[in-house]
Structure formats: structure tokens, C-alpha cells
Write a structure and sequence with these properties.
226 residues, Trna Endonuclease, Chain: A, domain 1, 2 domains, four-stranded mixed beta sheet, 5 helices
Length: 226
């Protein structure tokens, strides 16, 4: 992806090339012919300028979303590091045959959790099918995405450990948002602010003994990229 500085260099390069062509044309052409060349160059530069500007803005927007997402993941990781020592954190998890990466997978005595981090602002709602942001649907179906990622983890652990291990899907917002779900699931997914994440993970009955957590941890290690 070309960043903003690169697009500026491209724009300067196009301008210099245009000036060079004009200077060469002025030496060989005169009168009406030179005027025609200049008009054609101007007509070509306008759509080219629009294309460069539109592409630059689109890529700047994409880059901004990427960096906001990374910043949000760093914020959540700082919170997760405060979990008790018997919880194990796995960042940027990729399941073989799966689609994309999972932001975090947590394994501990209270269960296995697949955490998807979002960095949006606004008021988060639910229209009966999908999450909404200020009354409008998000660019993706975050509930469907989160459940699919958790299912990938569950299936992986089942194949490795030969037992059913449920991975609980969680969507957590790293920035301040208005959410009215509390600690209640939304279509099978916990949708929470970051302030509730530690409580959600650590609260609940014990599901695994230490040796079971150790076995799950050993398998999840192989899924961490990098």
C-alpha cells in the first residue's frame, strides 16, 4: 500500500513530466499546433489529478483504520496482562484452514475465550440480527465473525485433545462506547466495553483443572503467528 508521501512524489513526478513535455513541444511546435497540445495536456491532467487524490484519500482512510485497530489491540493487551497467572494469553492467533486471524485467545481455569477487538465509537445496539453503531449496521457482521472465530478454536482443540472444548466468543470495544447489554450475551456473544473484560474472563465456575489448562495452552502455542 502506497502511503501519503509516496503519492505526493507521484504527483510531483507527473507535474515535472508535464513541464518537460511542454518545453519539448514548444521547441518543435508553434501557433495552433502548440495550443492544441497544451489543451490536450490540461484535459488529461484533470482526471489524473482526481484519480490520484481519490486513491490517496482512500488509502489514507484504510491506513487510519488499520492503525486505530492496532492501537485498540494494544490497549486490550495491557488489560489482559493484569489477569491472574493461571490465565494464558495468545495474540494474533491463526487456525489452519481458518479465515484471517483472531485478535486474542485466552485459556484459563474458567474456560477458553476468543476475543475480537473493535475500536469504534458511538452507541452500540442490536436490531435482532446484527450489531449497530448509532443505529446503523457496521461494515461487517461482528457477531457472525466472532462466533466463527470461536468455532475455529473449538474445532482445533477438539481435533488435538479429542474432547469438546467450547471457546466463548467475545467482542470488546477498546474505546468508550455506550453499551446496554451488561454481562448478557447477544446472540451467543458477549459484547462489552474493555472495563468488563477481566471480570467476564475470571468470573464463573472452574471448568478446567491446572493440568487441563496446561494441555490447552500447549496446543494454542502452535497457532501464534510470528
Amino acid at each position: 500500500m502506497l502511503h501519503g508521501t509516496m503519492w505526493r512524489f507521484i504527483g510531483v513526478g507527473v507535474l515535472l513530466l508535464t513541464l518537460f513535455i511542454i518545453s519539448q513541444a514548444s521547441r518543435r511546435l508553434t501557433g495552433y499546433a502548440l495550443l492544441v497540445v497544451l489543451v490536450l495536456i490540461i484535459l488529461l491532467l484533470k482526471p489524473l489529478n482526481r484519480f490520484i487524490t481519490r486513491t490517496y484519500r482512500k488509502q489514507e482512510k484504510t491506513a487510519d483504520k488499520f492503525y486505530r485497530g492496532r492501537k485498540g489491540e494494544d490497549t486490550i493487551y495491557d488489560d489482559l496482562k493484569k489477569l491472574p497467572d493461571d490465565f494464558h494469553i495468545f495474540f494474533d492467533v491463526t487456525v489452519p484452514g481458518g479465515y484471517g486471524n483472531i485478535d486474542f485467545v485466552i485459556a484459563g481455569p474458567t474456560g477458553v475465550f476468543a476475543v475480537e477487538v473493535k475500536s469504534h465509537h458511538g452507541e452500540i445496539g442490536f436490531d435482532g440480527q446484527k450489531l449497530t453503531n448509532n443505529g446503523k449496521h457496521f461494515e461487517k457482521d461482528f457477531l457472525k465473525q466472532s462466533k466463527a472465530e470461536a468455532l475455529q478454536v473449538s474445532n482445533f482443540l477438539k481435533n488435538k485433545l479429542h474432547r469438546n472444548i467450547f471457546a466463548q466468543p467475545i467482542v470488546v470495544f477498546s474505546n468508550f462506547v455506550k453499551i446496554h447489554f451488561g454481562m448478557n450475551q447477544v446472540n451467543g456473544v458477549y459484547v462489552i466495553q474493555k472495563n468488563y473484560l477481566q471480570k467476564l474472563i475470571t468470573t464463573g465456575q472452574q471448568r478446567f483443572f491446572p493440568e487441563e489448562v496446561s494441555g490447552i495452552k500447549d496446543e494454542l502455542k502452535s497457532l501464534v503467528t510470528g
